[in-house]
Design goal:
Elements lengths: L2 H12 L5 H13 L1 H18 L10 H18 L1 H24 L8 H6 L13 H33 L1 H10 L3 E11 L2 H14 L3 E8 L15 E9 L3 H9 L3 E11 L1 H27 L3 H33 E10 L15 H56 L1
Parallel strand pairs: 1-5
Antiparallel strand pairs: 1-4, 2-3, 3-5
InterPro entries: Anti_sigma_zinc_sf, DUF4349, Znf_put
Family: Belongs to the zinc-associated anti-sigma factor (ZAS) superfamily. Anti-sigma-W factor family.
Protein name: Anti-sigma-W factor RsiW
Length: 412
């Protein structure tokens, strides 16, 4: 199994959504591949950290207070609109003046911020004799300062967007909801094979897929005296989220429903936090790449590249988590337990003697196969034990010869 495939299966393994065969291949691979094993541990730690977070409820009266503040800001914005236009005009003139100073100062050899950035005396210059640790600390401080400025600018822009309309704010909030739906059904049926085929076909028709399924044959459980059913089955399927409710109803019609449950998990807050973390890490990556271009010492380059690799690893882990969440949101899961009705004891239903000859033939062939397999296992065991048997025989012969020689010497 390739590492790329294993990396895609890590989150499914943690969520226990792999088939037994895929789980065996996955566990075998991570035992042999240290890189995939480390990535699995890293993602597992992140999942445990996320699951340990507790969502705090909003304080009472928060919505009313927010609505009042938005209306107040909207009214003030309408009153101060002429002042805002004057401010934008003078701010544009000041921006043009500062940009002109940045462009002209290198030509006139002024001590502009651009000259300081390009000189070896600059705070982020790699030409100074700072240690790699100090260099990365200074670089991180610079990145943090720029990120803080970007966050403040984004906050101002978001506030202006919120001022436009209270209804638009609510609409955008609803559009961003991320909910994972799941359900479970227990059906009692007369024919397990038929129902399994019907569920499989129906799932494919609505654009879903079967993740894994299994079936218990009645013959395999005939020795259990306490069983009330003759066989059964299990199927785990994924359907498009918009067809989840319809699928639950249609599957319930395929048998006698013994139990039905459904649930929905809202991961909107976690999803947004994860997206913000990804954007922040991408900004850090861009800053580090820009700093790397200016580095001229091998030791500093190695330290910066190590930091870049760490940031990229965190980005990939979070993007993988977002991708898995998207799949779980888009495709709801339904777990169906199928219980086949026990053979009736008061009346004869159907024709139990149908295909009797074929059943006898299958039973006889199965018994012969058991015997052949048993004999083959015995032969294999004997050949495996031959070296040990030879050692025991040789030891016994040596012991008898030694005992015989001792008796002869004693008689003499």
């Amino acid at each position: 199994m390739q590492c790329e495939r294993v990396e895609e299966m890590i989150s499914l393994y943690i969520d226990n959504q792999l088939t037994p065969e895929e789980k065996m291949e996955f566990e075998k691979h991570i035992k042999e591949c240290k890189k995939c094993y480390d990535e699995y541990l890293s993602l597992l730690e992140m999942v445990n950290s996320i699951n340990s977070l507790v969502e705090k409820p909003l304080p009472s009266g928060f919505k009313e207070e927010l609505r009042n503040k938005l209306e107040k800001v909207h009214k003030e914005n309408n009153r101060n609109r002429p002042t805002k236009k004057i401010f934008i005009k003078w701010a544009s003139i000041a921006a043009i003046f500062i940009l002109g100073m940045f462009i002209v100062s290198p030509i006139l050899n002024f001590n502009s911020p651009l000259n300081k950035l390009g000189s070896k005396d600059a705070g982020l210059s790699v030409g100074k004799e700072e240690s790699p640790k100090e260099y990365l600390e200074m670089a991180s401080d610079s990145i943090a300062a720029e990120d803080q400025q970007n966050i403040e600018e984004s906050a101002v822009e978001d506030q202006q967007n919120v001022k436009e309309s209270k209804e638009n704010f609510s609409f955008q909030k609803d559009m961003q909801e991320k909910i994972i739906y799941s359900g479970g059904i227990t059906l009692q049926v007369k024919d397990t094979n038929k129902v399994l085929d019907e569920i499989t076909q129906y799932t494919q028709d609505i654009g879903g897929f079967i993740q894994h399924s299994s079936m218990n044959h009645p013959e395999a459980n005939s020795s259990s005296s306490n069983r009330s059913t003759a066989g059964g089955g299990y199927i785990y399927l994924r359907v498009p989220a918009d067809k989840f409710d319809i699928a639950m109803e249609e599957i319930g019609k395929m048998g006698n429903v013994q139990e039905k449950q459904r649930s929905g998990e809202n991961i909107t807050a976690q999803y947004r936090d994860m997206e913000i973390e990804v954007k922040s890490l991408e900004i850090q990556e861009a800053r580090l790449l820009d700093i790397l271009k200016k580095a001229d010492k091998v030791q500093d380059i190695v330290e910066i590249e190590k930091e870049i690799n760490r940031v990229r690893t965190e980005i990939n882990q979070r993007k993988t988590m977002l991708k898995n969440w998207d799949q779980m949101v888009d495709y709801s899961s339904i777990e169906v337990n199928i219980i086949q009705e026990k053979v009736p004891s008061t009346s004869i239903e159907g024709n139990p003697f149908k295909d009797l000859g074929q059943k006898i033939q299958r039973g006889f062939t199965q018994s012969i196969n058991y015997i052949v397999i048993g004999v083959a296992n015995i032969v294999i065991f004997i050949f495996k034990a031959l070296p040990f048997i030879a050692i025991i025989v040789i030891g016994y012969i040596v012991y008898r010869k030694w005992l015989k020689d001792r008796l002869i010497n004693k008689n003499k």
